[in-house]
Amino acid sequence: MSDAAARRDPVLDIGRGVAMVLIVLGHVTRGLAAGEELDPSRTWYVKLDAALYVLHLPLFVLLSGAFVARAATRDGTAAYLRSRLVLLAWLFVVWTVIQGAVQLAPGRLVNTPISWRDILAGLWHPLGELWFLPTLAVLTVVTVLVAPWRSPGRRWALLAVAAAVSLLDWGHFGHWSGIQGMGLAVWYVLGVVVGHARLQAVAHDRRAAPAALVAVAGLVALFVVTTPVNPSDSTVPRTPDGIGAGVLAVVLGLALSCGVARLVAASPLREALAGLGRRSLEVFLAHIAFASGCRIALTHLGVDSLPVLIGAGLLVGLGGSLLLVAITDRVGPRWLFAPPAFLRRPGATAAAAPA
Question: Looking at the domain assignment, is residue 349 inside a domain?
Answer without folding.
Answer: no
